[in-house]
Specification:
7-stranded parallel sheet; two-stranded parallel ribbon; binds uridine-diphosphate-N-acetylglucosamine; binds nicotinamide-adenine-dinucleotide; alpha/beta; single chain; Rossmann fold
Length: 331
Amino acid sequence: MNILVTGGTGYIGSHTSVALIEAGHEIVVADNLCNSKASTIDRIKEITGKEVTFYQVDVTGEEALDRLFSKHHFDGVIHFAGLKAVGESVEKPLLYYYNNTVSTMVLSKFCLKNKVKKFIFSSSATVYGDNKVPFVETMELLPTTNPYGETKAISERILKDVANVNPDFEVSILRYFNPVGAHESGLIGEAPTGIPNNIMPYITQVAKGKLEKLKIFGNDYPTVDGTGVRDYIHVMDLAEGHVVALEHLTPGVHIYNLGTGHGASVLQLVHTFEEANGVKIPYEIVGRRPGDIAESYADVSKAERELGWTTKRDIYQMCRDAWNFERNFKE
Ligand code: NAD
Ligand code: UD1
């Protein structure tokens, strides 16, 4: 299939681009580079040995999309492009609501206009809010505590309403748990600008000596050791989940959790990282981060049953690959 990958130079988009090419698909990447670099395209080419067509465009812009859809025939769109910093979304709500929901609306409009039937959307486990674990796709969604989370819930709703009146439209909404790690080549990975918000890039930067020590946000949660529990998933498992979801699309809206189904606490993650890589991660316990929940992990039985997809890489490999990328990464 010929697939438009929006946000394809970003963290998850670049790994999924590799997985798509390796599965025999052709891709066109569209990204405005607001949170990534064009050099990632060269990395994707280096890993796969294939040419990749890249456009630097903002996917909220109708004129640019008109040109793109006139020039290429797509069988499907995988829509990763979005802003994802939770704290920034509180500071700049309009930027987040505009970018993340308008892109979904404009892209689905161009799909319908150009008879592109397949659409995959990057949602997040954040839409479950503080529900009871494990999170199941059928759960009623609880309000999220920030505009970022709302943009995901709203985009899901938009896609459901659009599919409702366009019975040929085939939509897969993928709710990611906590993607970590990197491609095993070490050529692509997660390289946030500034001080990382998410735990794995924070840990790898402590390991590298760029940051002094990890601050653990709270050890008084009702969890195995008091620290927050999350379902960490290797980014390549997540990437392969997109390929399988694409290849299984049928008319209507299909929602899948993409996680491992197992939770790990912050302390368990830190200790696994130390063991897997033979490095020490100094840390201190500080207060809880506002908006955090105690536990988040997926019920993955639907993806397993309907897509035949399960994760293959364990938490040791996530830690090894994350460190392998950071160790070799140059700004
Ligand atoms: P990322 O920031 O690395 O990648 C997103 C890409 O989208 C970037 O390359 C950015 O330049 C591009 N972009 C943003 N707005 C754009 C626009 N208007 N037009 C064109 N390009 C635009 O983030 P990621 O971690 O790869 O996340 C990909 C998607 O998955 C996002 O929608 C994110 O919200 C979602 N998601 C991520 C996580 C996570 O933990 N990383 C978890 C759940 C959901
Ligand atoms: C965060 C976002 C969430 C988003 C998800 C994936 C917030 C409040 N939530 O969730 O909306 O969908 O990323 O992008 O930002 N931790 C530390 N020290 C740190 C960083 C994190 O102790 O420096 C802890 C957290 O308290 C949490 C765990 O590590 O228990 C994972 O944190 P993080 O990687 O930020 O992911 P989420 O909290 O799941």
